[in-house]
Amino acid sequence: MAISTFEQGLAALQKRTTFVRIMIYAYIALWGLTILFSVAENAGAINLETMEPPLLTGAAAIVIGLAVLTMIVSIIVVGMWIHRAHANLKLAGIHDNATSPSWAVGWFFIPIANLFKPFQAMRELWTSSHGVSDRYGDEAGGPLPQWWGCWIVGNVLTSVSSRVSSLEGSTSKPVYSVVDIVGFLALIGAAWFLLKIVEGINSAQQSSLGIAKTFA
Question: Where are the domains of the chain?
Answer without folding.
Answer: 5-214
